[in-house]
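Researcher: We plan to redesign the surface later, but first we want a full-length starting point. Tokens attached.
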């Protein structure tokens, strides 16, 4: 009986370790996604903070291309 309980605990331990590894992988994936979103926000903030060019500048730019 004790051996059967030990085997059950070993299986539970293995399953728990697998689940922990899956959770760690998901956390890492989510952190990478958050970092990507942070970079996108920084890019947008940089674009917004730059002074915009006037209508004349747009015309000049379109004529250059």
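Model: Full-length starting sequence:
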């Amino acid at each position: 009986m004790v051996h059967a309980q030990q085997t059950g605990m070993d299986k539970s331990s293995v399953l728990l370790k697998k689940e922990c590894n899956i959770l760690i992988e998901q956390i890492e994936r989510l952190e990478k996604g958050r970092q990507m979103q942070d970079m996108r926000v920084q890019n947008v903030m940089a674009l917004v903070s730059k002074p915009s060019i006037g209508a004349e500048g747009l015309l000049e730019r379109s004529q250059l291309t």
